[in-house]
Amino acid sequence: MSIPFTLNGKPTVYEGSAMDRLSDILRRDFQCPGVKSGCNEGECGACSVILDGVLVNACMVAAGRAYGTEIVTIEGFRETAQFAVLDQAFGETGAVQCGFCTPGMILAAACILQKNPDPTETEIRDGLSGNMCRCTGYNAIVNAVALAAKEGRGLW
C-alpha cells in the first residue's frame, strides 16, 4: 500500500502495510532515530511525534493513519528557532541526563508552548504527563519549559 504524508516538511511515501507501527517505519524506513522504542505501549512518550499539530505516541499509531498528514519528528524540529530555545533551556536547567526521553520531552514542550506561550506550572506538568523520565526528574524539565517560555517570547 502507498501511504503519502509529509515528514519534517518533505513530501514522502511509505510503501508497506497500513498496519505497521508509525514508530517502526519512521526509525527503519525514514532514518528518524529520535523516535525511540521504549515501552511500545503508549506509556512512556519516547516515540513522541507531532502529527497534524498534535503530540502522539507513534508506537500506538498505525502507518495508515499517516495518510495525508504532516508529521514532525525531533529530526525536523531541531531545525527550528523554537528548538534552539528549548535546547538552551534544557541545558541551562540540567533537564537532560541520559537523553533517552529528551526528544519526546522537547516535542511535548513545543506543543505546550504552541498552545499557550505563557503556561502555568500546572499546564506544563499536564502537558508533559504522557512522557516519562527515569533520570532527570520532572522539576528540572518543568523549569526548562518555563524558561523556554520566558526566553522564547514571540516564537510560539
Explain this structure.
By secondary structure, the protein is an alpha+beta fold. The chain has six helices and five strands. It has helices at residues 22-28, 74-77, 81-92, 102-115, 121-128, 138-151; strands spanning 2-7, 10-15, 48-51, 54-57, 70-72. Strands 2-1-5-3-4 form a five-stranded mixed beta sheet. The model has no long low-confidence stretch (mean pLDDT 96).
Gap between N and C termini: 37 Å
Structural class: alpha+beta
Number of helices: 6
Biggest beta sheet attributes: 5 strands, mixed
Summarize the structure.
By secondary structure, the protein is α+β, with helices and mostly antiparallel strands. It is 38% helix and 15% strand.
Describe this protein with a few key phrases:
156 residues, alpha+beta, five-stranded mixed β-sheet, 38% helix, 15% strand, globular
How do the helices and strands line up, and which of them pair or pack?
Layout: E1 2-7, E2 10-15, H1 22-28, E3 48-51, E4 54-57, E5 70-72, H2 74-77, H3 81-92, H4 102-115, H5 121-128, H6 138-151
Parallel strand pairs: 1-5
Antiparallel strand pairs: 1-2, 3-4, 3-5
Helix pairs in contact: 3-6, 4-5, 5-6
